[in-house]
Specification:
The complex is a heterodimer. By secondary structure, chain A is of the alpha/beta class. The longest helix of chain A has 14 residues. Chain A starts with a strand and ends in a 5-residue tail after the last helix. In chain B, helix 1 runs antiparallel to helix 4, helix 3 runs antiparallel to helix 6 and helix 4 runs parallel beside helix 6. Classes of the chains: A alpha/beta, B mainly alpha.
Chain lengths: ~250, ~220
């Protein structure tokens, strides 16, 4: 089943045509990777999926982006959309508060005040994010004292705490060492049983290792979208071949 | 932008061309043995086999190094994995060439009785098929790969001719039976060499198109 369907989508930053006629269906409980050289529009598209671009002045979007068939730029409440479509960024951004409060922040915002309920959510979420064993004795300590990799996994856990349907990851491991990157990749593979993951990555091997589908973007156009194994073994478009084999980009 | 990797791929092509030429020499040596019974044939065949085996190891090491260092994808990955498969077929051809050379000794002065010209023709065809298959790889020429597959029919037809002729000879003189078996086995080895050349051509097709079939 398709989680996101994008039809004839165009995005403009003022006069600049950043995304051109994008057509893309992304499947539920799969990992989809967006790849392409810097400035190709992949992060712009990712941010359009939970309307982060609404905050950018002069940004105009035409066409359809539907989540479970529902137009996200229609009557859907943006706060509800962002609860359903969580996001993790390149640089870990834990709130300057305790580990516990980082995770409880989202549920509290959505009205959960009961301590026992919040305790349950914090534990369940940290377990889901495979970081409970590392943090269970540091719940009251500041999240800023964690390592970069732990901070990023905490951010993933924080995104999961509000029970999203989709997790967007914008180069979420590019600032991490190989061990932390490996832990997040393992986590993604486990999480796809429950969540739809859409990731932007510059790491071709990462896209190969964990994604089911890959979309290649160039100069605002989606050039090719296919099973990841096919994209990396027999790309159909010469531009895809040239990019993934390092002939440009 | 990726000069080093491109140079390494070119080196791989050159190594394959060299291994292919050793294999061609091995097959041509069998023709010499079959037609002329050269006394130094076995020695030459063993030298060739050693060179082929060494080339296989070198190419294998080179391919594994490229996979490790370059993490190839797309056509790069297909070419390197095809090269790894092709060298196995080339090495098998080398083994079969030495088997043929050894058997040729036992035919000796009776060679003129059998369809030796047909066998020599099979060997020539096989040698050309190997050359074409390697050329197809280096030039990424799918049409040439297809031609290899088509030429295999010629070898198969020649094999049937040799088989039928040999049956006739045994019927005429049962004492030639043992040698006749050797002749058929030589023909069978050459027919298998043709099949290996087709395998190589199929890997060439895979490296070019991503599919192993040759239409």
């Amino acid at each position: 089943m398709d989680k996101f369907t994008i039809k004839n989508m165009n995005l403009y930053y003022g006069d600049f045509h950043a995304l051109k006629n994008v057509e893309l269906n992304m499947q539920e409980k799969r990992i989809t990777a967006f790849i392409g050289p810097s400035g190709c529009g992949k992060s712009t598209l990712l941010k359009s999926l939970n309307r982060m671009n609404d905050l950018v002045e002069g940004c105009k979007i035409t066409g359809d982006i539907k989540l479970n068939g529902e137009d996200i730029y229609g009557s859907m409440d943006v706060n509800i959309l962002r609860k359903r479509v969580g996001m993790v960024f390149q640089k870990a951004n834990p709130f300057p508060m305790s580990v516990y409060d980082n995770i409880a922040f989202g549920p509290r915002t959505h009205g959960i005040k009961n301590k026992r309920e919040l305790d349950r959510i914090v534990e369940e979420t940290l377990r889901d994010a495979a970081i409970w064993d590392e943090l269970k004795d540091r719940l009251k300590k500041s999240a800023l004292g964690l390592s970069g990799g732990q901070q990023q996994r905490l951010c993933i856990a924080r995104a999961l705490a509000v029970k999203p349907e989709v997790l967007l990851m914008d180069e979420a491991t590019s600032a991490l060492d190989p061990v932390s990157t490996g832990k997040i990749e393992e986590l993604c593979l486990r999480l796809k049983d429950k969540y739809t993951i859409i990731m932007v990555t510059h790491n071709m091997q990462q896209a190969l290792r964990i994604s089911d589908k890959t979309a290649f973007f160039l100069l605002g156009e989606m050039i090719e979208y296919n099973d990841t194994d096919l994209i990396f073994s027999s790309p159909q478009d010469k531009r895809t071949e040239e990019y993934i084999t390092g002939r440009f980009g | 932008m990726r000069e080093y990797f491109d140079n390494e791929l070119e080196n791989l092509n050159n190594q394959l061309i060299e291994m292919g030429s050793f294999v061609e020499q091995a097959i041509n040596n069998t023709v010499e043995m079959i037609l002329n019974g050269r006394s130094d044939g076995i020695e030459k065949a063993r030298e060739n086999e050693e060179r082929i085996n060494a080339a296989e190891k070198n190419i294998q090491t080179h391919c594994l190094k490229l996979i490790l260092h370059q993490a190839p994808v797309a056509q790069d990955l297909r070419s390197i994995s095809a090269a790894l498969k092709m060298i196995t077929d080339l090495e098998r051809i080398g083994d079969q060439a030495i088997d043929i050379t050894e058997m040729s000794q036992y035919i000796g002065d009776k060679a003129n009785i059998y369809s030796m010209t047909h066998i020599a023709e099979m060997a020539t065809q096989a040698s050309e098929m190997v050359t074409m298959a390697i050329d197809a790889f280096v030039k990424t020429d799918i049409e040439l790969a297809k031609k290899v597959s088509k030429n295999d029919d010629i070898i198969d037809d020649l094999f049937n001719t040799v088989k039928n002729d040999t049956v006739d000879i045994i019927l005429q003189d049962k004492e030639l039976g043992m040698q006749a078996i050797d002749v058929v086995m030589i023909a069978k080895y050459l027919e298998r060499i043709g099949d290996h050349a087709v395998n190589i051509a199929e890997w060439v097709a895979f490296s070019i198109t991503g599919k192993r079939e040759i239409e």
